[in-house]
Structures are given as C-alpha cells and as structure tokens.
Design a protein that fits this description.
The protein has 425 residues and is mostly helical. It has 18 helices and no strands. Helix 7 packs across helix 17 and helix 12 packs across helix 17. The relative contact order is 0.15.
Length: 425
C-alpha cells in the first residue's frame, strides 16, 4: 500500500477522531445540562443556543478562502491546523478556569471553540480534496475520516453521559470536564506538527477572481440548495430531549448509551459506504434516502403511545434498536452527500468550494434548529414531528437537476414533467 496514502489516512483519522464531531464532543451533554439545570433555559432557549454556536460553521467558505488564498510560510494547510487547534485548546482551558458561568460567557467561549473547530474542519477537508480528487480517493478518505469520528463518538457517548451524571450529582466539576476536553486539540497540534506534509506554495493573487467565478457556477448553486433543503426541516431535537428526560425518564447515562449505540451503527454505516454504497448509482440512492428519512422521522411518534409509556424497559429497548438502525442510515446518506460535494470541487480552490457547500448544509441545520425552537411553543412536539417529515419533501424538486453523470431515474423524469407543467406560462 502506498506510504503517502497510509500517512494521510492516519492524519485524517487522528484529526477527525479528536474533532468536535468526535472526542471533542465529550462536554456537549454536560453543556445541555448546565443550560437546563443551572441556567433554567427552556427547550426553545436551548435550541437558540445551539443555533448560535453554529454560526462559525455557516461562514466556513471564509475560512476556506483564507486557507486557499493566503499560505503561511508557503503552506496552505499545516499552519492553519496548528492555529485553529490552538484556538480550541485555549477556549476549553478558559472555560475550565471560570467557576461561575453565565449564559453570555458560556455562549461566547463555546462559540469561539466551535469557530476553531469549524476552521480546522475546512482546512483538513481542503487537504483531503488536494490529495484525494487527483487520485479519485475522496470517497475512501471520507469513509476513513468519518469511521474515525464514529469510533470516537462511541467513547464520547458513554463518557459524556457518565461524566454529565457525575457532574449533576456533584461528584465531578464541569470545570474538570472542560479541562479534560482541552487535551484533545493538544493532541491534534502534536499530530499535525509531526505528520502533516505538503508542498510549499506561493500566494496566488488571482484567487479572488476565481472565487467570484465559483459563485457564478450553476452546478455549485444547485448542490448548495440541495444540501440546504436536505436539512431544512423544523428540528424537534431539543424539545424531544426535554420530553425524553421529563416524560420518558431517560437518564444522562442512558443518553450516553444511546449515543454510543448510534455511533456503533454509524461506524458500521461508514464501513458499508466505503465498501459497498459507493457502487450504487447516486440518483437511486438519494431518492430512496429521502423517503427512508421521512420514515425515520415519523417513527418517533411511537414514543407517544400511552400503552408503551407504561413499559420503561420496552421504551429503552426500542430506543436502542432504532438509534442503531438510524445511525447506519444517517451515515451512509451523509457520506454520499459529502462525496457528491467533493467531486464537484475544483482542484485549486477545494477548501473554499467544499466549505461553501458545507455551509449550506450547516445553514440548513441552523435554520432547522431555529425554526424548531420558534414552532415548538406554537404547535407542540407531535405536530412538530409531522411538519419535519413534510419539510423533507422540499428537496425532491431539485433532484432531477443535480450535476450527476447518470441517467435520470423514472421517478426524476416524472417529477421533472410535473415541475414543467407547474411553471407559469
């Protein structure tokens, strides 16, 4: 096996393992409990907090433009990996040193940490496209990256639930949890220093012009809107979290176990994607994924059945099984979308383009969280779940126009015919 491939695979695996999606997500559940128990934030307030912390992820193209356009010492990726990891490191240390947290301080420092992770994510994805597109290995690299994430999430889920329970019982301070989390970007700094190698490049003054041309690319905009509407359905995650704690009586430890089971399913999904899903025509896969996702959303209605609520053990068993299945499903869909996005990125502006596409993906998530927080007090949790399923259909009109070098499916041809008839004459 090629030594360069092995070395880069190891870099991608380690950086993703310790990323915000991976082991650095350890304090997420603890932060939720701080907001709920100590600051007495409502479900809608928690949804708004989560939406605000995603702002740095929405402007990811800006971080990509910086990395693509302004090499530091002639290097586009390595110096920025060190800087962004350092930003996360000092943010977690800062939280660990503050003993009386207020909402503005928690929101501000967590947002700064997430900014570091967002920038880091753009840089490592840029490196993936730099070396992966020329060798047609983007799908394999992304499978390695996200399998590492899901392996880390298994640890994070169990550990996050365990430490949050200890903190709620007063047996472990939240400051100690933040201090432990600070070790992860430190490891990323060490790995990036030792293992990341890239060719020295001069700054490219014409880059701004190329980015402007990028914004006029019809294919990029179609995929951007597709990614946005894929996620833009009113989120019921925060209200369902409160419902799970207050009505279903799920503990912090059980939430950790649930997340671990989801991560095991996700890890299996990542392996299946790298081994088998890449061979399936992407058009057929995405159409099936839309309706499978709607089914997964509607499945949550089972947790409101009165008879089932009388059997806590059955509730937990059902939650464990469904989380595993949904983990597999969500991962293969997510990786298919990432690979589709990577394939349309130009070689010379990979970080900017991929970040631009992913910002629409994250903007959909952010809008979903904010819309869910807005609608929940008005319609309630059950109706919110139904509305989320309905909104998932909004992605279908874009399906026939995706820049995929495959023949349209029968479903897409029929949909395209319907859309033509609906056009004003």
């Amino acid at each position: 096996m090629n030594k360069k491939f092995v070395r880069l695979s190891a870099v991608f695996a380690v950086v993703y393992f310790f990323s915000l999606n991976g082991l650095a997500g350890l304090p997420n559940l603890s932060i939720n409990f701080i907001l709920k128990d100590r600051m007495h934030l409502s479900a809608a307030g928690l949804a708004y907090f989560q939406a605000l912390t995603l702002l740095a992820w929405v402007v990811k193209p800006f971080w990509g433009f910086i990395s693509d356009s302004f090499p530091i010492g002639g290097f586009k990726r390595k110096p920025y990996l060190l800087i962004t990891s350092g930003l996360a490191l000092f943010s977690w240390i800062g939280l660990a040193m503050i003993h009386t947290l207020t909402f503005p301080i928690l929101l501000g420092i967590v947002s700064i940490a997430y900014l570091g992770y967002a920038f880091q994510d753009v840089v490592i994805d840029g490196l993936m496209i730099d070396v992966g597109k020329s060798s047609n290995l983007t799908g394999q690299f992304q499978s390695i990256q996200w399998c590492s994430v899901y392996a880390a999430m298994i640890i994070t889920a169990v550990g996050g639930g365990y430490v949050s329970d200890l903190a709620r019982k007063g047996l472990l301070s939240y400051n100690r949890i933040f201090l432990i989390t600070a070790l992860f970007p430190l490891i990323t700094i060490i790995v990036s220093t030792l293992w990341v190698q890239e060719e020295k490049q001069p700054a490219i003054p014409q880059r701004t012009f190329k980015v402007k041309n990028l914004l006029l690319n019809k294919e990029i905009w179609i995929i951007s809107l597709f990614l946005f509407f894929w996620n833009f359905s009113p989120s019921f995650g925060s209200p369902f979290f409160y419902y799970s704690v207050d009505t279903l009586k799920f503990s912090g430890s059980f939430f950790g176990i649930l997340q671990a089971v989801t991560s095991v399913g996700s890890l299996l999904g990542g392996l299946l994607f790298g081994k088998f899903i890449l061979r399936i025509p992407i058009r057929k896969f995405l159409i099936g994924a839309v309706f499978a996702g709607i089914g997964a959303i509607l499945f949550n209605g089972i947790y409101f059945l009165p008879n089932l609520l009388q059997h806590p053990h059955a509730l937990k068993a059902l939650a464990l099984l469904s989380n595993f299945v949904f983990g597999v499903l969500n991962t293969v869909i997510f990786l298919a979308l990432l690979n589709l996005s990577a394939k349309v990125c130009p070689q010379d502006a990979g970080a900017t383009t991929f970040a631009f596409l992913m910002s629409f993906y994250n903007l959909g998530l952010m809008g979903s969280s904010a819309l869910g927080g807005l609608l929940f007090p008005l319609v309630g949790l059950k109706m919110l779940i139904l509305m989320s399923a309905f909104f998932s259909l909004l992605v279908l009109p874009l399906m026939p126009y995706l820049p995929i070098n495959e023949e349209l499916t029968g479903f897409e041809k029929a949909l395209q015919g319907v859309l033509r008839k609906l056009r004003p004459r």
